[in-house]
């Protein structure tokens, strides 16, 4: 038991050195409470065209099916909040999380370093790192580890840091000391996020219809954006921050200190007209290492065109 405590402290300390805002540890086991919620959400087709959400249902709920001999899930959070803004208020908007280098790349490297330190200082430990790269229910594990509660917009909220942070995991075959801090819901009677969503994607407290979310429509959806969303996109061309921007808990957000999340020097200065005339070359230059590449040049052009033709 003493070793578990020592190892857990070592991991938390190393995570902090690597720039992680949070580090919580849970026992790797079946997420019993999440199973009926996930099943009901899928049956209502709230995942839209995200067919991958239907795959590996059991693996999403049990990390032991992802990592042989898994004993612990180390949940990590890294802050991406910034007060940088696009210079032209009339320009199509891009979510804050995509201002800098693709977070998948940045966090995966930090997880690799953390796992390396664990092996160097504790011994041979088997495990895998996850950053949106496999069927892992990030928010459920973070909540279980006491890092916050799931808000009415379905994001993980933390009293001291709001919600502008990425989540990631290390699932390892080492027993550790597990966090048992109770997670209390602090949303109260607030409905800011529900009231502010222009596409009515938050269909009820704690339930988001992903197929109506602006982030889904501008990133995940590969076909044409349905006409019913004309005039409802609030000028977002990639992602959306509305439900986070209006959340009272985000008044506690602090500026991130990760150099990789610094916006590309050209990104924030592009005017509305520049976006209308964006070329493949400019796209490649500005978004070379960005998460925006996920939507590809044709996808971004589709989004910009849809916004221009909004009535």
Automatic annotation (TrEMBL):
Compartments, as annotated in UniProt: Cytoplasm
Binding site for cob(II)alamin: 60, 132, 153, 156, 167, 215, 240-241
InterPro entries given in the database record: 4Fe4S_Fe-S-bd, 4Fe4S_Fe_S_CS, QueG, QueG_DUF1730
Residue numbers binding [4Fe-4S] cluster 1: 187, 190, 193, 247
Active site: 132
Keywords recorded for this protein, A-Z: 4Fe-4S, Cobalamin, Cobalt, Cytoplasm, Iron, Iron-sulfur, Metal-binding, Oxidoreductase, Queuosine biosynthesis, tRNA processing
Pfam families linked: Fer4_16, QueG_DUF1730
Pathway: tRNA modification; tRNA-queuosine biosynthesis
Ranges for domain 4Fe-4S ferredoxin-type: 180-207
Catalytic activity, as annotated: epoxyqueuosine(34) in tRNA + AH2 = queuosine(34) in tRNA + A + H2O
Enzyme Commission numbers on file: 1.17.99.6
Listed cofactors: cob(II)alamin; [4Fe-4S] cluster
Entry GO MF terms: epoxyqueuosine reductase activity
Quaternary structure annotation from Swiss-Prot or TrEMBL: Monomer.
PANTHER family: EPOXYQUEUOSINE REDUCTASE
The protein's role, per its UniProt record: Catalyzes the conversion of epoxyqueuosine (oQ) to queuosine (Q), which is a hypermodified base found in the wobble positions of tRNA(Asp), tRNA(Asn), tRNA(His) and tRNA(Tyr).
The protein's name in its UniProt record: Epoxyqueuosine reductase
Species assigned in the record: Mucilaginibacter pocheonensis
């Amino acid at each position: 038991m003493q070793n578990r405590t020592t190892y857990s402290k070592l991991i938390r300390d190393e995570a902090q050195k690597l720039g992680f805002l949070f580090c919580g540890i849970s026992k790797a086991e079946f997420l019993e409470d999440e199973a009926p919620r996930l099943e009901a959400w899928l049956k209502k087709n709230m995942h839209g065209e995200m067919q991958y959400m239907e795959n590996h249902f059991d693996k999403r709920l049990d990390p032991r099916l992802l990592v042989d001999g898994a004993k612990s899930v180390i949940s990590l959070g890294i802050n991406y909040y910034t007060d940088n803004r696009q210079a032209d208020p009339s320009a199509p908007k891009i979510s804050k999380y995509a201002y800098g280098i693709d977070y998948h790349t940045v966090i995966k490297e930090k997880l690799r370093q953390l796992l390396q330190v664990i092996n160097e200082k504790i011994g041979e430990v088997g495990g895998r790192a996850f950053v949106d790269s496999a069927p892992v229910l990030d928010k459920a594990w973070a909540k279980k580890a006491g890092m916050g509660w799931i808000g009415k917009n379905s994001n993980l909220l933390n009293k001291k840091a709001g919600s502008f942070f990425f989540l990631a995991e290390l699932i390892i075959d080492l027993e550790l000391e597990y966090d048992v801090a109770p997670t209390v819901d602090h949303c109260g009677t607030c409905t800011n996020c529900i009231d502010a969503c222009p596409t009515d994607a938050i269909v009820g407290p704690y339930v988001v219809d992903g197929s109506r979310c602006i982030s889904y429509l501008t990133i995940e959806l590969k076909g044409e954006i349905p006409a019913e969303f004309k005039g409802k996109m609030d000028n977002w061309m990639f992602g959306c921050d509305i439900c986070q921007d209006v959340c009272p808990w985000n008044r506690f957000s602090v500026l991130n200190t990760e150099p990789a999340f610094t916006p590309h020097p050209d990104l924030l200065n592009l005017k509305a007209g520049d976006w209308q005339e964006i070329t493949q070359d400019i796209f490649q230059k500005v978004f070379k290492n960005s998460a925006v590449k996920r939507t590809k040049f044709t996808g971004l052009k589709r989004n910009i065109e849809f916004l221009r033709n909004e009535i």
